[in-house]
Design a protein that fits this description.
This protein has 302 residues and is α/β, with parallel strands linked by helices. The protein folds into 2 domains: 149 residues, Medium-chain alcohol dehydrogenases, catalytic domain (Quinone Oxidoreductase, Chain A, domain 1, Alpha-Beta Complex), CATH 3.90.180.10; 123 residues, 3-Layer(aba) Sandwich (Rossmann fold). 29% of the residues lie in helices and 26% in strands. The chain is built from 10 helices and 16 strands. Strands 3, 5, 6, 7, 8, 15 and 16 form a 7-stranded mixed beta sheet that branches. It has a 6-stranded parallel beta sheet with strand order 11-10-9-12-13-14, sandwiched between helices. Helix 10 links the parallel strand 15 and strand 16. The protein starts with a strand and ends with a strand. The mean pLDDT is 96.
């Protein structure tokens, strides 16, 4: 089958279309004919070797599509079901067929498009897990450090719906968007602590969810009274040095069912802004790797 991935660890020059066998679902897996697949920063990091996969490998960690085969021991899914979920290991989703982890899959309601469903497992799932990790009560104030990306915008929406005050650092071009989703945008750079405190209106910053890392994280990590309420996916080691922690993911069907239910109710927008055909998978990844994408990028396969 036709797929897109990388032949060996390296830069974009290592990306290529691949001719690979249709995968066979093992225990706990589904074989899915892919309709849509999400694009995430983790895809180019995988190509660069961040996750220990040397290649050749198919890219793509999240898909929506139609079940064609059910692996041994899988219950609750049948051939013909419309599903979405996360992909395992080297058998990614930028392909005509993909494996999906049954325990991290859910049915796709007819009212939710394949594009929107495929955009949920990684960015929205990470945001959902972050809020669960932090355990903030209604009325608390959360700073999202790097709120303009896919995970950031998802966090702003979910935190707003949970009754939190959400402040988000971002470049000026994304301030209006953050506001439209219920967040209070502030600019990066010198004086950011004063701007965050002003945006909080005298209330304490109860937690920081970091998506930027580096010196930016080092600066805002001083805001919560409890350093353990600093959570980072961008710079896990630094977060721990500062007394914070890394996110613990819950890759379960329960999370996906909750998220797609919010989409059905109009309470959450996956905010898919760009759709590329599989023929342009390289361009899709380049747009995400450039770092200036607004919203989610999705690849349409069939």
């Amino acid at each position: 089958m036709r797929a897109y991935g990388f032949v060996e660890v390296g830069g974009p020059e290592k990306q290529a279309f691949l001719d690979v066998p249709v995968p066979v679902p093992g225990p706990g897996e589904l074989l899915v004919r892919v309709r849509s697949a999400g694009v995430n920063p983790g895809d180019w990091r995988l190509r660069e070797g961040a996750y220990g996969i040397d290649g050749p490998a198919v890219l793509g960690r999240e898909v929506a599509g139609t079940v064609e085969r059910v692996g041994p021991g899988v219950e609750g899914f049948a051939t013909g079901d419309e599903v979405f979920g996360g992909c395992p290991g080297m058998v990614g989703g930028w392909a005509e067929h993909a494996l999906v982890i049954a325990s991290f899959a859910a049915g796709r309601p007819a009212s939710v498009s394949p594009h929107d469903a495929a955009a949920l497992p990684v960015a929205a799932g990470t945001a959902f897990d972050a809020l669960n990790n932090l355990g903030l009560s209604r009325g608390a104030t959360l700073l999202v450090n790097g709120a303009g990306g896919g995970v950031g915008l998802a966090t702003v929406q979910l935190a707003r719906d949970a009754g939190l005050t959400v402040i988000g650092t971002a470049g000026p071009a994304k301030h209006e968007l953050i506001s439209s989703f219920g967040g209070i945008p502030v600019a990066y750079g010198d004086g950011v602590l004063d701007r965050v405190r002003a945006a909080a209106g005298g209330k304490p910053i109860d937690a920081v969810f970091d998506l930027a890392g580096g010196d930016s994280l080092r600066t805002v990590a001083t805001l919560p009274a409890d350093p353990n309420q600093v959570l980072s996916v961008a710079d896990k080691d630094l977060a721990k040095q500062l007394g914070g922690r890394e996110i613990v993911r819950d890759r379960s069907s329960h999370v996906l069912c909750t998220l797609v239910g919010l989409v059905e109710q109009g309470l959450f927008d996956p905010y898919v802004t760009t759709v590329f055909p599989l023929d342009q998978a390289g361009e899709a990844l380049a747009q995400v790797e450039d770092g200036h994408t607004v919203g989610k990028v999705v690849i349409e396969v069939s």
